[in-house]
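User: Fold both of these, please.

Assistant: Here is the first one.
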Amino acid sequence: MVRVNADLIWKSPHFFNAVKERELDLRGNKIPVIENLGATEDQFDTLDLSDNEIVKLENLPYLNRLGTLIMNNNRITRINPNIGEFLPKLHTLILTNNRIVNLVEIDPLASIPKLQFLSLLDNNVTKKPNYRLYVIHRLKNLRVLDFKKVKSKERLEAKNLFASKEAIEEVQKAPVKTSPPVETRNVSEATEEQQTPKVVAPTPEQIIAIKAAIVNSQTLEEVARLEKALKSGQLPEDLKGLTDNMVLDNVAVKHGDKVHDGKGQGDDESNDTEEQRSTDSTPMEQE
């Protein structure tokens, strides 16, 4: 936990940023409270206090020069109602990823006379019904909200929606929108399922191939694995290759048998023909 003081301020990075503004970088110091910023002597256009542990946006000195205040990734839940009195020229305020919940907590920003760019992304308040129209209605000079340009159509819609005090109060009391929980699969289970090989029932040829592989196995681990596959009646994918040669051999054997049968039949027919000729020629010799 670090306290803001003159020593921290002048030891922290300060430079001209991309838009040629003088910037003081106080981010990532675990600062819990805004204090002693008067030590800056109002010499900076941009102040970066992001990635700290600030809970309240308050206790700011009069900083006439400050135009951009970056407060993302803090724990801000409350804003000083009179913040605009101390930041008369502030035009950009970044409050992304804080803990602002209710719409009424945004109302103090209306006191900043020149605020034109505002980000409240990743705050629960953005889930409120009509959140965007409410902010546009309250901050009359706003040009960009949550990095989206404010359109004339939205201004008119906001004006009509919040024409009465009752409508404003109703929106302020509306609960935060909640999304139903989404079932997510355990990563380890999904990975295990992807890695588990699919199994198929073995054919008679595959069973014979497994038995032959058991006989030819070189290690006990291989024998145990093959016996397990045989007993379970399930053939893992990596064992399907065992049957490929066997199937080819069976095809070759069957094809060979057919060829052999054809030749035998031809020989028989040839022998019958020769016997017939021999019979026919016998009577002629007797004459």
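And the second sequence with its predicted structure:
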Amino acid sequence: MGRELVSSNKSITMRSPVVKSCCVLFLILFLSRHYPVSATKKILNPKKPCKRFILYYHDILFDGNDVANATSAATANATKLGNTDFGKLVVFDDPMTKDQHLLSHPVARAQGFYFYDMKTTYNAWFAYTLVFNSSDYKGTLNIMGADMMREKARDLSIVGGTGDFFMTRGIVTFQTDTQEGTKYFRLKMDIKLYECY
């Protein structure tokens, strides 16, 4: 009789994890039926951003003589692999304006770097922050991605932001607006935000 009691206690103990699992499963099913949780993905329409604006990026590369006007400088020279500046790293603090004029009042600064990363054609990879401190906007936008320079228009990712752009995401479309050799270039930046808070 003593053995039967011990044996039945073992089977209760062995079943208890199974019983606990069944109870937890029942509870989850009950709660999910009575308190539905939405797991639907927000559908973004590429033709309807929640915010859109155009800025112009002005880059004046330091050539060793133009300290007063330069806004960028090469910090690593190009390698001898190919003839496309492969390996050249440029750090910048460039003014952003609402129009094409370099001397217009900047509404933001583009601060970051780009480097040339293809041996066969000109291609750069950008990572930078737009720092806004104007009457229109306050905060930052973080931008990164490949700039396929031979393409007429190319998209980079907006991966986050702060202030007026808290946790935003979107796309910035680059178009080369003008270029003066390796000394100066201006990009038209069409900024489209799809997640605005």
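The mean pLDDT is 83.
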